[in-house]
Amino acid sequence: MKNIKEIAPFLADDFIDLEESIFDVDYYAVFLEEKAEKLGILKKYLICKFHDSSIINISQNINQFTIKINDFSTHVFADAIIEKFNLTINHENLLFPLSIEFKDNLKVNYFEVDEDGILHEIAPITLDEYLYEQVTKVEDDKIEVVFHFWKSNADENKHGKRVLVIVSASEISVIEEQEKAWLDLFGKEYDNYYEYFKSQFNSGRYVSDYSECMKLIKEFDDKNK
Q1: Which run of H or E residues covers position 142?
Q2: pLDDT for the residue numbered 154
Q3: Residues of the chain with pLDDT under 50
Q4: pLDDT for 123
Q5: Sequence-ordered list of residues with C-beta below 8 angstroms from that of 35, at least 6 positions apart, any chain
Q6: DSSP 3-state of 17
Q7: Cα angle value 26/29/31 (rounded, 5°)
Q8: pLDDT score, position 178
Q9: Could you report how far apart the first and last alpha carbons of the chain are, in Å?
Q10: pLDDT value at position 158?
Q11: Among 110, 102, 100, CA closest to 163
């Protein structure tokens, strides 16, 4: 039987009680750096950068699996801009799409995890929120990623559940549509702020938090007085 501790130890403590960490995050960061070329654009988003992103759509055919999310980091920065400049933009319109695509030699499996960490395969279901991921294999002809999602309960009085989706394929790519969405919402008036946000995000700085985004805006204003 597959256990979360062996399959994706980075994600294990979200599913089971652990007395101590079983995952070396520093070693994982080195691993991702070594595999950067194969991972491509995805690398800059790994280790919690997609956390709390809502799922726009997940689709699959015989040769392709696509996860389309509303990029949480850009969403939070947009919230900060709206607050800072007192803009009247409907919160429901803050959609900043990004797609993760797996192609060729595709394998996709959905699982629930019990209290002992054992994985139990389930049929594909609709998912609501992106939580975390762990890249578990990067080879010349194969990339495997274990995704951790949240499935809400239709009855708001009942708890939702955590779901693992293990995806492997020959190729992985990321389609970034956030910039177009930003321009559609804000036009060019706040371009300089957005470019500063992107530069800080791409540098590896953690900016996926409202207070950090407000700091970014102040930093930019201070630098450009």
Answers
A1: strand 142-151
A2: 78
A3: none
A4: 97
A5: 43, 135, 138
A6: coil
A7: 110
A8: 97
A9: 61
A10: 81
A11: 110
Whose tokens are 């394998």? That residue is 107
Q: Which two tokens stand for residue 12?
A: 């294990």
Residue whose entry in the numeric block shows the structure tokens 């630098």: 223
pLDDT of residue 136: 97
**Could you give the C-alpha distances from 80 to 56, 101, 121, 192, in angstroms and in order?**
22, 29, 40, 14
Q: So what's the pLDDT on residue 182?
A: 97
Helix, strand or coil, per DSSP, at residue 147: strand
Residue pair 201/207 in contact by the 8 Å Cβ criterion? yes
- Mapped onto helix, strand or coil, the DSSP state of residue 61 is coil
What pLDDT is recorded for position 78?
A: 97
Do 153 and 127 touch, CB atoms closer than 8 A? no
User: Distance between alpha carbon 103 and the CA centroid of its chain, in Å?
Assistant: 19
Q: Please say whether the beta carbons of 86 and 76 come within 8 A.
A: no
